[in-house]
């Protein structure tokens, strides 16, 4: 199992973002995220932003791409523990209309 994602027995896949999500990580992470979405049948995806401190437009694009992959797979997705600069950028770009933000810790499945 990878350090940045885990799947529980109920099919919930949690993806933990690194501290920085920018163009330097884009291509490596995109390929890995695609693999997880395609290879790990899931009931829901949780994007854990608890460690995320900085994101640029490429990182936002990667998050949007994850949303698109999840939608294509007909799997609910949400982002949790988003704060600081990443939260400001996410909301400024209205990404919260694409991927719901949950502002509290929760282990509950998506509705």
UniProtKB/TrEMBL annotation:
Q: Which residues form the STAS domain?
A: 10-111
Q: Which PANTHER family match?
A: ANTI-SIGMA FACTOR ANTAGONIST TM_1081-RELATED (PTHR33495:SF2), ANTI-SIGMA FACTOR ANTAGONIST TM_1081-RELATED-RELATED (PTHR33495)
Q: Which organism is it from?
A: Oceanococcus atlanticus
Q: Which SUPFAM superfamilies match?
A: SpoIIaa-like (SSF52091)
Q: Which domain of life is it from?
A: Bacteria
Tell me which Gene3D superfamilies the record gives.
STAS domain (3.30.750.24)
InterPro entries reported for this sequence: STAS_dom, STAS_dom_sf
**One of the record's GO molecular function terms:** anti-sigma factor antagonist activity
What name goes with this protein?
A: Anti-anti-sigma regulatory factor
